[in-house]
Amino acid sequence: MKQSSIIDIISPVMVGPSSSHTAGAVRLGLLARNVYNAEPEKVTFKLYNSYALTGKGHGTDKGLLAGLLGLSVDDTRIKNIFNLDISKQFEYKFEYIEDFNRHPNAVDFIFEGVHNMKISGDSVGAGEVVIRKINDFTVKFTGKYNTLLIVYKDVPNMISRVTNSIHVNIASLHCDRYAKGEEASMCVCLDGDIDQKVIDFLGLIENIYMIRYIKKLDS
Questions:
Q1: Which of 203, 107, 111 is nearest to 148 (CA)?
Q2: How many separate helices (H) and strands (E) can be counted in the chain?
Q3: Top enzyme class of this protein (predicted)?
Q4: Are the C-beta atoms of residues 25 and 75 closer than 8 Å to each other?
């Protein structure tokens, strides 16, 4: 078992001056990339509060874009990401907003492309992050666990059909819905890994509209 150094405990190994504003931003971008799971045509980053006020100085904007492009927190290309060819894969812009209802380090990713999607998350300190919403559904996952995300029609026994098919210990389960019998979401964080065959099987279940299997982020 790898022993953690005092540096690892205080802050993740990263490029940039701030764990919450830089490393957290990269990790939020990585999770949003895995949820969207397609090449967007355009992305709008909406930065809130502290992210909006000090994000440029701390490289938050660079970190968010770098994560969305698949770069890790210790990738030295983050410093010059706006000048690299990799950053020209899609159109993007940044907006800066103050809203006391949002976390100090909050961001919305607004995706436009093969499908439109809004993903909202917070950087909560020491590089730790939480995805809070996908479109209008509340979710909660951090990148610490492999996570199964499903959007489905709210019908009886759907939760049991999904959980009985996984055969992996569930760390947490969060469900939300628009209204009874309408579109709903299920966020299942897992202690282990599941096979692609399980994901394919779940995709055959009637009334499931979308499935994402989001691998945990590297520590």
A1: 203
A2: 6, 10
A3: lyase
A4: no
Backbone angles phi, psi at 2, to 5 degrees: -70, 130
* Exposed/middle/buried for residue 209 (C-beta within 10 Å: 0-12, 13-18, 19+): exposed
Q: Show the tokens assigned to 58.
A: 């701390």
**Single-letter amino acid, residue 79:** K
In degrees and rounded to multiples of 5, residue 133 shows phi and psi of -145, 145
What's the predicted TM-score (pTM) here? Answer: 0.86
DSSP code, position 66: H
Look up residue 82 and give its two tokens.
């706006």
SS3 95: strand
Q: Where are the alpha helices (DSSP H) in 69-187?
A: 158-166
Residues whose CB is less than 8 angstroms from the CB of residue 95 and which lie 6 or more positions away in sequence, other chains included? 44, 45, 46, 47
E strand map for 68-218: 91-97, 105-112, 117-125, 128-134, 137-141, 146-153, 170-177, 183-190, 208-214
**What's the one-letter identity of residue 201?**
F
Give Rg (Cα) of the chain.
Answer: 18
User: DSSP secondary-structure letter at 18?
Assistant: -
pLDDT at 54: 85
In the block, tokens 């800066």 appear at 96
Q: Which residue has the tokens 């949820």?
A: 35
Nearest C-alpha neighbor of 180 from the set 155, 212, 201:
155
The SS3 assignment for 187 reads strand
Nearest Cα neighbor of 19 from 123, 103, 132, 145 is 123
90: amino acid identity, one letter: F
